[in-house]
Design brief:
Helices cover 71% and strands 0% of the residues. The chain is mainly alpha-helical and 294 residues long. The protein has a domain at 2-34 and 52-63 and 153-292. The protein is globular, with a radius of gyration of 21 Å. The two termini are 36 Å apart.
Length: 294
């Protein structure tokens, strides 16, 4: 449970952590009409990431277990490490291209004016394409089309594009505008109450569906509502995106993996509800500090 929760929370620390972050950035760029820098996302999301990691980490330490240690785990990892052997030429090349793409993505502000159209995703695209022509240890290209077609995560691409389609549907049908008008009509102008509402909705949607779907649905609504009530919607977007990554309860998305390995669904449900409450309180505190006190 610690592994799957950690993978979920840690995913929003950088834009590369999951499709949900790229969906949020897509809407930010549409809203501002400007390119959004990956490093900006990491800096802005760091407070939310730290407080959630610390809070949920402390909570996990309070969960009672049958044993305090995992006998044989050290030997297991040592044996697995030995099986890997020495790093191969193919692995070195692949790692170098990946690191280069990551560096280009996060140092985008340094060459933005020089290469205005070279967005971060082009760095990963070019790195992947290059590996089709670079030979590895077996004198064959590091990537072949057969390997790419079989091993590529097409489901992620469908989820990403489907999430964007759902968000665009909310905008094109004027559903987001209707929600914003409703918020104004009932005089829901307290920005802190709005922040709590967005956090609650984000956590609920993430637990009921997936982080990406929750982000795609909520962010357009946040932009529409806050745009009419607050001068700067960006803090609300950040807090909502963080909330959309707080999924702990149901065995959906990545949380289905530990269930498949034998974890009791009731155990995750029971402990997950407490984690949801803790995340709601912690994010509300950060929202108050960043939105009200500034």
């Amino acid at each position: 449970m610690a592994i799957v929760w950690g993978a979920g929370i840690g995913g929003f620390g950088t834009p590369l952590g999951g499709a949900m972050n790229l969906v949020a950035i897509e809407y930010i760029e549409k809203f501002t009409g400007m390119e959004y820098m990956y490093i900006t996302w990491t800096v802005k999301m760091l407070p939310y990431l730290l407080i959630l990691v610390i809070g949920i980490g402390i909570y996990l330490l309070t969960v009672k277990t049958d044993s305090k240690t995992l006998p044989g785990s050290r030997e297991y990892f040592k044996n697995e490490y030995k099986k890997l052997g020495k790093i191969k030429k193919s692995e070195v090349i692949s790692l170098a291209f990946f690191i280069a793409a990551v560096v280009l993505a996060f140092t985008r502000p340094l060459y933005e004016k020089m290469l205005p159209e070279f967005k971060p995703y082009y760095a990963f695209l070019l790195a992947g394409l290059a590996l089709f022509f670079i030979k590895g240890d077996d004198k064959k290209a590091l990537i072949s089309w057969e390997t790419a077609a079989k091993d590529f995560n097409w489901g992620l691409i469908i989820l990403f594009s489907g999430g964007l389609a759902a968000g665009n549907l909310i905008i094109s049908t004027k559903a987001a505008d209707a929600l914003s008008q409703s918020a104004v009509s009932i005089q829901l102008t307290d920005v802190f109450i709005l922040a709590i509402l967005f956090i609650t909705l984000g956590i609920f949607l993430a637990n009921a569906s997936s982080n990406t779907a929750a982000t795609a649905v909520l962010i357009p609504v946040v932009i529409s509502i806050v745009g009419a009530l607050a001068p700067d919607p960006m803090p609300f977007i950040y807090i909502s995106a963080a909330a959309c990554n707080c999924a702990y309860v149901l065995p959906t998305s990545i949380r289905a993996i530990p269930i498949g390995y034998g974890m009791d669904v009731k155990f995750m449900l029971k402990k997950g509800i407490a984690a949801v409450v803790i995340s709601l309180v912690l994010l509300s505190i950060v929202a108050y500090i960043q939105i009200i006190m500034q």
